[in-house]
Amino acid sequence: MGDMPMARVDCRTFAAFCQGHHAHACSIPVEELPARMHELPKTSEPLIVYASGEALRQATAFLTSKGYQVAQAIEWTLPLAATLQAAGLFYGKAASARNACGNLLHYWRVS
Question: I need a surface site. Which of 40, 45, 71, 110 has the fewest CB within 10 A?
């Protein structure tokens, strides 16, 4: 793995994602994970998962049950958003659900 970046999946609602998210995260709400598995990189690639509360537990459990390694399960909080903003890694809007995750699979196929 080394310095290779990990895929970041934000499993909060799309509305919450649009209010702010990690600049390199894609939006796949926890309820949509089963139908959108094809958008994730192969299971050998570790993931960083963002969500809040029960959604974080559900997303992590689901992904693990499907063979994914969840390298980090990160609770989305206002202090986290502030930290990301200070680091230049906070993005506050997404034009559409398709744009919110469109490049994730492509990134992993060409990396």
Answer: 110
Distance in angstroms (rounded) separating the CA atoms of residues 64 and 45: 12
- How many residues are there in the chain? 111
**CATH of range 7-110; options 3.40.50.300, 3.30.2310.20, 3.40.250.10, 3.30.160.390:** 3.40.250.10
Q: Where are the domains positioned within the chain?
A: 7-110
Torsion angle of the four alpha carbons 102, 2, 61, 105, in this order, in degrees rounded to the nearest 10? 20
Q: What is the pTM of this model?
A: 0.82
3-55 tens-digit pLDDT: 567 899 999 999 999 899 999 999 999 999 999 999 999 898 999 999 999 99
What average pLDDT is seen over the chain?
85
